[in-house]
């Protein structure tokens, strides 16, 4: 079965929090090169790893991963506020 | 170094490593057939050194050897995935090469030896059925 490409905000979130790839890798329990693959969207994480990433950033999974290209987070938050 | 350049370098080392290793085997067989000489011995030593060097640069320094030989629990999920994929491809290539070699030896044998044909057939059967048999043994549902 061919898997769909997943888009994510890992690179932006990591830079926002000022942590290195190595630090993030240690926190989520993977090799630092795997963080590079995730950030370049060349690797789709398992559900378990996606949850670990979401717990690490303190954000719901749907704010980090999507099946379509992600808009800037500020735009998403604005949309949520308007809907709310 | 960029990822692409690094991959090109690794691919070049793969080609070099196998090329010098097969050249070494050819030199050893040639030496055996035509009687050893100092020249053949020097060439064999140079090729051995090249094989070792290319192995060190390709497998040891890049940690590829560790990646494919360590316990599965030491790898993260991406590393497990690429290693499984690599082992799957390697199994196919190794099986085809081993069986082809055995078949050639069976055909080239001066005295017809039915044992070699039986061994070829048995190994051919095992190569195709072993992965399925392991699944049948381990998995509750397939």
Strand and helix map with partners:
The complex is a heterodimer of chains A (84) and B (142).
Chain A lengths: L6 E2 L1 H7 L4 H8 L3 H8 L7 H11 L3 H4 E2 L6 H11 L1
Antiparallel strand pairs in A: 1-2
Chain B lengths: L2 H32 L3 H23 L3 H6 L7 H32 L5 H25 L4
Helix pairs in contact in B: 1-2, 4-5
Question: What's the quick description here?
Answer:
The complex is a heterodimer of chains A (84) and B (142). Chain A contains 6 helices and 2 strands; from the N terminus they run βαααααβα. Chain A has 84 residues and is mainly α.
Give an account of the 3D structure.
The complex is a heterodimer of chains A (84) and B (142). Chain A is built from six helices and two strands. Chain A is mostly helical and 84 residues long. Chain A has one domain: 434 Repressor (Amino-terminal Domain). A two-stranded antiparallel ribbon of chain A has the order 1-2. Chain A is globular, with a radius of gyration of 13 Å. Chain B is mainly α and 142 residues long. Chain B is 83% helix and 0% strand. The longest helix of chain B is centred in the N-terminal third of the chain and has 32 residues. Chain B starts with a helix and ends with a helix. The model of chain B has no long low-confidence stretch (mean pLDDT 90). Chains A and B meet through loops of A and helix 4 of B.
Which terms summarize this structure?
heterodimer; A: 84 residues; two-stranded antiparallel sheet; 6 helices; 58% helix; B: 142 residues; 5 helices
Could you give the distance between the termini of chain A? 38 Å
Number of strands of chain A: 2
- From the spread of the alpha carbons, the general shape of chain B counts as flat
User: Which topology of chain A does CATH recognise?
Assistant: 434 Repressor (Amino-terminal Domain)
Discrete helix count of chain B: 5
Low-confidence stretches of chain B: none
Q: What portion of the residues of chain B fall into strands of 2 or more residues?
A: under 5%
Kindly report the average pLDDT value of chain A.
Answer: 92
Q: What would you report as the Rg of chain B, rounded to the nearest angstrom?
A: 20 Å
Q: What is the number of domains of chain A?
A: 1
């Amino acid at each position: 079965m061919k898997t769909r490409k997943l888009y994510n905000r890992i690179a932006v979130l990591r830079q926002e929090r000022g942590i290195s790839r190595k630090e993030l890798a240690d926190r989520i329990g993977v090799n630092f090169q795997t963080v590079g693959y995730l950030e370049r969207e060349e690797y789709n994480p398992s559900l378990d790893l996606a949850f670990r990433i979401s717990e690490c950033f303190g954000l719901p999974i749907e704010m980090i991963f999507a099946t379509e290209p992600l808009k800037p987070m500020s735009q998403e938050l604005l949309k949520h506020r308007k809907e709310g | 170094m960029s990822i692409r350049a690094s991959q090109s370098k690794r691919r070049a080392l793969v080609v070099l490593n196998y090329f010098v290793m097969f050249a070494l085997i050819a030199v050893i067989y040639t030496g055996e057939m035509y009687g050893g000489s100092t020249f053949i011995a020097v060439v064999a030593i140079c090729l051995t050194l090249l094989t070792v060097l290319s192995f060190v640069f390709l497998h040891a320094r890049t940690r590829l050897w560790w990646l494919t030989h360590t316990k599965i629990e030491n790898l993260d999920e991406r590393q497990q995935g690429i290693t499984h994929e690599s082992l799957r491809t390697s199994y196919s290539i190794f099986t085809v090469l081993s069986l082809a070699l055995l078949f050639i030896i069976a055909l080239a044998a001066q005295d017809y030896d039915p044992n070699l044909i039986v061994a070829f057939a048995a190994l051919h059967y095992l190569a195709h059925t072993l992965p399925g048999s392991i699944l049948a043994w381990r998995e509750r549902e397939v």
